[in-house]
UniProtKB/TrEMBL annotation:
Pfam families reported in the protein's UniProt record: PfkB
UniProt-recorded Gene Ontology molecular function terms: ATP binding; kinase activity
Protein name, entry field: Carbohydrate kinase
Family to which this protein belongs: Belongs to the carbohydrate kinase PfkB family.
Record key words, sorted: ATP-binding, Kinase, Nucleotide-binding, Transferase
Organism: Kribbella soli
Domain Carbohydrate kinase PfkB, first and last residues per copy: 5-302
Superkingdom of source: Bacteria
Listed Gene3D superfamilies: 3.40.1190.20
Amino acid sequence: MTAPLLVVGEALVDIVGSAKSRNGNGKSNATPGGSPANVAVGLARLGVPTELVTRIGTDAYGDQLGAHLFGNGVQLAPGSVDPNFRTSTATATLDADGVATYQFDITWEPPALSLSRGCPAIHTGSIATVLEPGAASIHDFLASVADQPVTVTLDPNARPSITPDPVSTWDAVRALAALSDLVKLSDEDCEFLRPGLAPVDIAKELLTAERTQCVVITRGGDGALGISRDAHVDVTAPVIEVVDTVGAGDSFMSALIAGLDARELLGERRLVGLTSEDLRDVVDYAVKAAAITCTRHGADPPTAAEHTEKWGS
């Protein structure tokens, strides 16, 4: 039996509201979130068995997260629930266009990290990869499994409020990217981490690492780019009515991984043999998954059935 795909990183509660709510003139609500946790849920909803290594408490927010993860079929790794831990939060404020900005109250120190035999892929990213002491644990873990038959995917999901120095943050991203087979960035990540450099040039820079096979860059309503050593695809996004963008990038990431898994490009393949057609198809699948998330409130990725019903594939 194949082991579940492993996701490593933070799970937290998003306290989402409009700009009015911060001034006491509107409402906010608490919803499960955290980029890696969102990716884990998205993968499970798309039919990919998934285990999440995280750290949550047994307080009200932790109970809410646990119910959400279990309810969506995500396994929690041993040690992820800690009665002595205060569950982290992110306050997300939406502007008039539904675009979110965040303020975080987070501590990150993961339980022991280990790789199960047969695990097809490890995904990590976001705050967990830059906030100590957990960031060092993730780097050391990825280095320790570098010779194992597992595919590694990375989404830095830069948070300037957590790491305001783009130079040191980029150094950390480069170090993790060199241990990853696929790196996903947003256009906002690119602007923060490598200001003035074209996204394609950033991708080429990351592809100089021996292990890295593919870089995908999302561009919001303009779609996404997929760039590998042998291919370059530009996929447009469908026209939708945006409710908010919370979790859209995470939905994209989970669908991207699920698409690669369906093509048996994970595990020991490590994306070797990824064709231009494969790349276009998986990026298109991911763009459409993100589009569905943008049509509803909060980090709410689609199921495989919802994706098929909406887009036909």
